Amino acid sequence: MTEPAGLGNEPTPRPARKPSRFLAALRLGPLIVWTAACGVLAVFARLVRGVAPKPSRYLRTLAFVGWGKGVLALMGVRVEVRGKPPQPPFLLVTNHLSYMDVPLLASLTRCVFVSKHEVKGVPGLGALARAVDTIFIQRERARDALRVLDRMEEARKAGDGVVFFPESTTSRGDRVAALKPALLDAAVRTGQPIHYGIISYRTPPDLPPAHEVVCWWGDMTFLPHFMALLGYRGFNAYVTFGAETLSAEDRKALAARLRTALDRDFAPVVPREAS
Questions:
Q1: How far is CA 251 from CA 163, 180, 185, in A?
Q2: Is the pTM of this model over 0.85?
Q3: Per-residue confidence at 15, pLDDT binned at 50, 70, 90?
């Protein structure tokens, strides 16, 4: 496993520091306005799709990439990228640590996401997700995966990249969880090689560790977690894109190969003394 440049897992004294309510309030308004503006552009792109499909896709991509870059800038996220992001059309899987994975990957790739169905109902973000052609899946319904696989193939044929998280849940970042293979059929049945990426986060030494304030896991609720994150001055995000693409004859074998690749390059977010 590799470690983000310049950062280790050695113990670091971290004084108790609370998020700034003032900073959170200062950032919240611009984030709402920026999300709304990007959403309006994405909705306009959908409206003109029937008469101008290529300009429509360009405008949707502009809205989504712009939204991701804007969110990262407003939240003080410093991004370091290793390797080259895949060019569409592609299938990309990564580990899943936080809701921040979405703006992070949206800022770096021209893609649509596969997301859990519940995101549809999130105020503001649900509308944006629908406008940028997010593919929603109801994980509690096993047969819904068949519909989603068809949608993923339609998106790829239309020239889009498709990003999904086969861990199917976020984690505290101590390891890569077992990958659920169902959606990997999108690569197996078409013979499409699959790209992979590894995400990690770090906070500055005087802030709480990233697994406490950036990763979203366990029984954490979204709004309190998000408002607290807004109240910290910033953090570091690391994305490593694999140098190779992977394929296999069946989805279980592909899941095993992908997990091996993710494990190899994954830098745990949780410091050793907190594991």
A1: 17, 9, 6
A2: yes
A3: low
Residue 264's CB is within 10 A of a number of other CB atoms, namely 12
Residue 223 Cα distances to 120, 213, 259, angstroms? 16, 12, 31
- 161 by DSSP, 3-state: which? strand
**Pair 158, 148: CB distance under 8 Å:** no
pLDDT in tens, 33-61: 999 999 999 999 999 999 999 999 999 99
Determine the distance from the C-alpha atom of residue 252 to the mean position of all C-alpha atoms in its chain, rounded to a whole number.
23
User: 82: which strand partners?
Assistant: 240
Question: Rounded distance, CA 106 to CA 109, Å?
Answer: 6
In angstroms, what CA-CA distances link 103 with 7, 63, 72, 230?
Answer: 23, 12, 7, 14
Q: How far apart are CA 209 and CA 213, in angstroms?
A: 7
Inter-residue contact 261 to 1 (CB < 8 Å): no
- The β-bridge relationship of strands 77-82 and 235-241 is parallel
Instruction: Pull the structure tokens for residue 101.
Output: 């994975």
